Amino acid sequence: xxxxxxxxxxxxxxxxxxxxxxxxxxxxxxxxxxxxxxxxxxxxxxxxxxxxxxxxxxxxxxxxxxxxxxxxxxxxxxxxxxxxxxxxxxxxxxxxxxxxxxxxxxxxxxxxxxxxxxxxxxxxxxxxxxxxxxxxxxxxxxxxxxxxxxxxxxxxxxxxxxxxxxxxxxxxxxxxxxxxxxxxxxxxxxxxxxxxxxxxxxxxxxxxxxxxxxxxxxxxxxxxxxxxxxxxxxxxxxxxxxxxxxxxxxxxxxxxxxxxxxxxxxxxxxxxxxxxxxxxxxxxxxxxxxxxxxxxxxxxxxxxxxxxxxxxxxxxxxxxxxxxxxxxxxxxxxxxxxxxxxxxxxxxxxxxxxxxxxxxxxxxxxxxxxxxxxxxxxxxxxxxxxxxxxxxxx
Length: 394
Known about the structure:
Elements: E1 3-8, H1 19-33, E2 39-43, E3 47-52, H2 57-64, E4 72-80, H3 83-94, E5 99-107, H4 116-130, E6 134-136, E7 143-149, E8 153-157, E9 161-162, E10 167-178, H5 184-194, E11 195-205, H6 212-225, E12 231-238, H7 240-249, H8 255-273, E13 276-280, H9 293-300, E14 307-308, H10 316-325, H11 329-332, H12 354-361, H13 366-375, E15 378-383
Parallel strand pairs: 5-6, 5-7, 10-11, 10-13, 11-12, 13-14
Antiparallel strand pairs: 1-3, 1-4, 2-3, 4-8, 4-9, 7-8, 12-15
Helix pairs in contact: 3-4, 7-8, 8-9, 8-13
């Protein structure tokens, strides 16, 4: 008997006039994710169908767990819409089951002659007669058998798996992720991908104050994120000259604020160059001195681009929990410092004044430095490791 994976869209069904576009992008993303496997994918307005070879089932399901835009999926038996065939199949499916059950019938084909509730009752009676270990509980059953009746085919399944939800990556334009080696920014990137935003990434390094190991750490974090998309361009910015000048010329209390303003200026330039419509970062309100609302406001003054902060209102434990789920946490805690953790002053200002920032920035020619920095950046194309897998993320 043939089995198929049924994919249901969830939030995509709210898009109305744009629904076909979202479904098409999801189809393309699933096709890319299942490349190399012997599968056949088809779709309609409410679901997608994946026919597969049985030996590839676990790999198919594992890869689907990395695709945004999937609300739920089921591994279902596909049979012709015939009452006797349905009876035969549900008896086979439930013969090893024990405990309580209920039957749920959904009739997409309203010409089917038996009303849904009555058909569920009849099929429940068939199962009770065929398996003495079963009893009915319509409120909290151990097993729910679902029968979905379409015009030509009927789909039967007992288990429902939850996908990642969100929107398919690529249904929104690109954002530029400010990716450090910390815990927060990879989680922010993951959450931006979940809303359909394609990503490029920028990493600021200050050799010799930061190490090659720190860069490799960021590359691995980026590679983890590519599990949820196809590839990410990582722009490595040589930040040494700017950072050393800031700590030499500026009021120590304002160094972090000035440094972040320079990073924002550079990120905006790269965003415009590579056609990104927003900046994405891992700032969380109040977590460090540069992330108080006052600091964010003053730092934000240097860019006119939207700044998306997906983890802004999460506490650290919530962010850590997400980092563990997407498998970035163990990489993020490797002891290699990035630009944001070196040269931290004892008492960084937590309520910076814009006028003071502007005064400090007159002490050096940052525009010329930014120009040199941008012209000397290195871009690395990060792609997913073949056959990397993730468990189901709720």
